[in-house]
Amino acid sequence: MVSPTLLRKSSSRLAGSSELHDGRKVVRYIEQVYDKEPDRTSVTITYEIVNADGKVVEKFEESGKLTILTREMIEGMLTEAGLKIKAVYGDFTGGSHNEASPWLVVVAGKRQAVAGGT
Question: Could you tell me if residue 31 is left (phi over 0), alpha (psi between -120 and 50 degrees) or otherwise beta?
Fold first, then answer.
């Protein structure tokens, strides 16, 4: 999981490399650009295949956009969809949720039908 604080900044960095069985290397770079207005981060991951001489012989890119959703936003969307929030946890062991929690685990289900209603 990536912290919203880390997603709310622009950066470019070497993310690591690993060696292939034939001696070539895969080098991975990550570039992220934060756009404050929609609170969205565009991420581009570039993979370079480098031969033993250090020459880039292949290059691949993948990209996407990440929107940061707060607890309140997620709860609001689930409620608007007709679901009832049953529990909220900060991890997968049932720990309480707070700003420092590593996860946001929301348990939701169908609302109980109202007697005499539809």
Answer: beta
Whether residues 88 and 40 fall in one domain = no
Instruction: Point out the domain boundary residue: 67, 82, 100.
Output: 67
CA distance 86 to 110: 10
- What is the pLDDT at residue 1? 52
Q: What pTM does this model have? A: 0.59
Residues 38, 78, single domain; the answer is no
Task: Identify the bridge partners of residue 34 per DSSP, sorted by sequence position.
Answer: 41
Chunked into runs of 10 residues, the chain (118 residues) has average pLDDT values of 67 87 94 87 94 94 90 93 94 90 90 68
Q: Residue 3: CB partners within 8 Å, gap ≥ 6? A: none
Query: What is the extent of the structural domain holding 96?
Result: 71-110
